[in-house]
Amino acid sequence: MTDPVIAQKGPYVVTVEEGKSYFWCACGRSKDQPFCDGSHEVTDLRPIRWKADASGEKYFCGCKHTKTPPFCDGTHETL
């Protein structure tokens, strides 16, 4: 299994729109962090689809090691 690349050690703060779907990059290779740009094709990792139930700010994981994908759970503090 491919290990994800740490895109950044901290979350990406993103303003999301209610009803919109987002595809969180799980591999860490995307140039469009925290979202997928298809760079995972060379890995066995796949993006996580998430649909916003309300508009507002969300904290998407940047280290790609969260236990609560696609959101930051503080794991980056131990890397």
Automatic annotation (TrEMBL):
One of its GO terms (molecular function) is 2 iron, 2 sulfur cluster binding. Keywords: 2Fe-2S, Iron, Iron-sulfur, Metal-binding. It comes from Rhodobium orientis. This is Glutamate synthase. Residues 9-46, 47-78 form the Iron-binding zinc finger CDGSH type domain. Transmembrane segments: none annotated. The keyword Zinc does not apply. Pfam families: zf-CDGSH. GO terms for cellular component: cytoplasm. InterPro entries: CISD (IPR052950), FeS-contain_CDGSH-typ (IPR018967), MitoNEET_CISD (IPR042216). PANTHER family: CDGSH IRON SULFUR DOMAIN PROTEIN HOMOLOG, CDGSH IRON-SULFUR DOMAIN-CONTAINING PROTEIN 3, MITOCHONDRIAL.
